[in-house]
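Q: Can I see a sequence and its folded structure?
A: Here is a first one.
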Amino acid sequence: MKRVFGRGKSPCLAKVSIFFIVVALVAGTAGCVDTSGGDSYYLTIGSTAGGDVTIPGEGLYAYDEVTVVDLVAEADEGYRFVGWTGDVHTVADVNDATTTITVSGTYSIMANFGVNITLNITPMVAVGRHQTVGLKSDGTVVAVGYNHYGECNVGGWTNIIGVATGWYHTVGLESEGTVVAVGLNDEGQCNIGDLSGIIRVAAGQQHTVGLKFDGTVVAVGDNYYGQCNVSGWGNIVQVAAGDLHTVGLRSDGTVVAVGVSDEDQCDVGNWKNIAQVAAGRLHTVGLKYDGTVIAGGDNSYGQCNVGNWKGITQVAAGLYHTVGLKSDGAVVAVGANYYGQCEVNVWTDIIQVAADYDNTVALKSDGTVVGAGANYYGQCNVGGWSNITQVSAGSDHTVGLKSDGIVVAVGANDFGECDVGGWTGINQTAAGYWHTVGVKSDGTAIAVGWNDDGRCDVGGWRDIVQVAAGDMHTVGLESDGTVVSVGLNWYGQCDVGGWSNIVQVAAGNWHTVGLNSNGTVLAVGDNSYGQCNTGGWSNITRVAAGLYHTVGVKSDGTVVAVGYNDQGQCNVGGWSNITQVSAGHLHTVGLKSDGTVVAAGPEIELAKWDLF
């Protein structure tokens, strides 16, 4: 090896100057190199700010043909090595700071360094179809929500600097530029093991997108509509993924997009002066340098009506809604609002917003998190209730009995299950899958909602002191301690005819629970998740049954629960001073002795997060 031109560690000569000098030398001497006999070739080595190539050094070198040259790049303090670029086709590993290059031609390579961003992680939130993910300042990740495919299994992640959520998968960007992913992988959306040099990630319905440090983009997963055809992109500074399309923001403020465009969501070729992009299901949003916003694509719910927005610093796009963060920390939203996902006008001190499917989540300046939208149907929106003496949680609705005997309800009302506005003289209520039941002061029962299976056929009941509503069955406790039941009986959930000395009943999806006068609990019906495993309970004063879980209030005001806990519905261990509980499909509600209400479930967990 002959060193034609090189440099040591002298601070007197800037890297960029040296690089252009050696490039000029190559250009000036390339014609003088005699390669006809395969004698020698030139290798030019340089580096970006943040580190040096220590072996063999930096500069212009001449090597015999097919020489294997050791390469060692070392990062300065506060920086990290991110990869080799240039003529790297004979570099053994472009992602390894210690590697080799085989000199079989005249080459020029560059060692690239980036700021070690693990030193300053910015907390953030991301929202998937039914999961919410939070990045903490220490690089760990928290998640709540639907976890059927493991999309919330992020407890072991560390050194994470960015997160993104798809429909049923979650993606994490590691500080070294590699990527981790959990959740559904039916289209290969989690096949990210080979990705490196990544500085940003985005996740669509069933695809994952990564922005590399050199401005190029990679994508894996579903490509039926061409949403992963990003290999030709360059000079990209930010990416966004919709359900079936992908959007890239170029360094010059223009935008590119690929994928399905049946609603013109990819027609962004004329956009200019864009600072940030976001992608919803069928629409694309762009934040301009001047704080105004542009949007294209499906506007059936008004999600593109952003023309009058001003002073915006960040945008996010959900299924059919668009959210904007204002410079003063307030939030605006347009589009579909059937789950309250646009009810963000009272939020303050917000520093980041995220939107997906039917909800909106925001990170506050103090590190806490707020959310709006699918709870899933507003069934946890009980903050304004007062004078409540009893609560009931159904599948997707919540019912409250007031001290004057009238009833209030929030949540889904597709089958009239919330049509309780005319009820009076009610002593107790119960909420089922799609129905609501009430006991009147004269011992009769009333019910509204779906009744194809007979679950509302309670008109002939007498001497009833309490009712419970299951998924497709209804249970009534008579004044003598015996029990009656109507509706479907697939799992034996209505086999309560032999019960006696019962003081309270509860009904789950396909199971029924009875509290005995001695404080013990019995249960019949489906037990696939252990929801009937109440045999060891004692000193119980109240019981409740959800979809696949059972809850009991102890005499000391604490709470116990068994059964399925995928949404955190059994996370009641810290509750105290509880006088009554009710369990919905995916959430649990508790009434405290001071008349306030607590709840457990995915959106309630957000209130406990402190990402700082």
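Q: Show me another, different protein.
A: A second, unrelated one:
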Amino acid sequence: MSHTLIPAMRLFITGAAGFIGRSLVTQSLTRGHCVIAMVRGTTDVTTLPWASDPRVTIVRGDLRERSDWVDALRGSDAVIHGAYGQGDFFSQFAGTVVGTENLLAGMEAVGVRRLVHLSTFSLYDYRALPARASLDETAPLETHPQLRDAYTQTKLVQEQLVRDFARRGGQVTVVRPGAVYGAGKMWDAGMSMRVTDGWWLAIAPWAALKLTYVENCAHAIVLAAENPAAVGETFNIVDTDPPTQRAYAKTLRRHGIDVPRSIPVPYVVARAVAQVADAVNRAFFRHRARLPWVLSPAKLDASCKPLTYPNERARWTLGWTPQASLDEALDAITRGIPVAPMHMRLGQPDASTPTRAKRLIKVGVSLAVHGYDRAAGLVGRPLASRSRGVIVLYHDIAPSRLRSFHRQLDRLQHFARPSTLAELRGEPDGTWRVAVTFDDAWRSFGDHAVGELQRRGIPVALFVPSALLVESDHDQSRELMTVAELRALPAAVEIGSHGRTHVRLTRLDDPALTNELSGSRDELERVIGRAVTAHAFPYGEWSPRVAGAARDAGFTHLYGIEPDIARAEEKPVIPRVVVDPVDWPIESYLKLRGAYRWMAPVIEARNRRRPSAPSHGAPGDVRHPER
């Protein structure tokens, strides 16, 4: 069995000591790849967190000169090019344009064709878009770079070089990150310009910021290197539902980060002032006067125009979901609470973390549903006589959340009868049952969950992505269980398939789909020595074609992700409701009582209106769950 989503790659990463580059190396190692990390000759490698990792080869060099680093390219499966020049125009041109010319020539010399190029949102022509428009990968690029800064000008030339390389046979993916934030780089809380000490202008404070956390961004870039479907594509990388400037500043303060006082300036006011200043500069100074950037309409639009930033292309094609929310990222930055490095946000439905307001709305509606259930019970029609209960789904149990997990188990035992999956497939008998399942075979399942469940006498089923299990315990940073750990689980733990490599099955052609399903069953049966008859769809995403293929592969019971109850009439795919230790107590209680089932038809109706994902010719009717 392999260690990662795909066979381990040899990745050559330029700019590896930079802000994004450090995270790129970390994400690559997390996903099981080997890295050739190119850094400048003056870099102090002792400050790099992965410098002593045996899977990393550090190469010193300067892309502005062709030297020994070209030989280090040989044998690479892909190059991730994140290096660029800084300083004045000529320094940026040398580091960005000349460096890229040399890199592409070196790749051609040693026969490396696969390139993931880090571009930028700065290339877009913001003046061509109306305010509040959607800026996606189809937006036009800047046609008057002389009105912008040296960074935009040199990155435009750089991307043209990359596109020319693609026309010569290069297998190119262009990734355009938004405003990448992380430790030491918070983008001045989204402020626009300092006026005096302690006071800043906040232009368009109600507009969304194109933010992406550095680890989220690096994860997407590595996915692009791995995925053959990314060749020839361009991806904008922005976190889902990015905050407005005001919301960002408020969240930073809540996490103890200093935020300067600001003067809010509506975008229309700032744009009108910039238009007047530009007209004066053009009429009297022939655009030779050096004005602050906020008085240049082109630069102001690029930084402050209110727009929306969809990320559907990256999510659909790469299977990318931002690993950390804004709060989780700031916890990692300020308090050292780590965001779990993941092969992916394994098993999490393809939806953003619900906001507090959305959670409150869902709780309110679910309370009403629960009230109806209680009233129906008083008149002799209890829900347990019409349903067998619910199946709950956990993923990772962080050590910091163990107390919450234990309290949730207390509630489960108090309000329901813990049951096996088989018992929930029986006829309703008036007893409200709850079955517990875990997806993904996280290491925390063996370390923290299974022992506690056994002690309480709570049955559990584990759905395993078979090809992601690691063979040994040599890597202490691993996140998933080893083969030996899976084999050593108590016999009472039911083992089911979660695919081989945790890909979205709806996007696979028939041979690849068969390999994912039959291959997973065969691998798991060899490991545990007993039949595997249950399958849970990765991300809960399925279609009639995929469900049929799973049955053909020998699976008799199929499980999805949908907050419905286990009804007397069994569905083709049995629903499970996602529960997490971070859930509020009222949320976990209502989920255990089946009160979130009102969401199931809402999700189904929404999905009927949603276009199907590209699936290599597979039919539509794809089911996309949501938490």
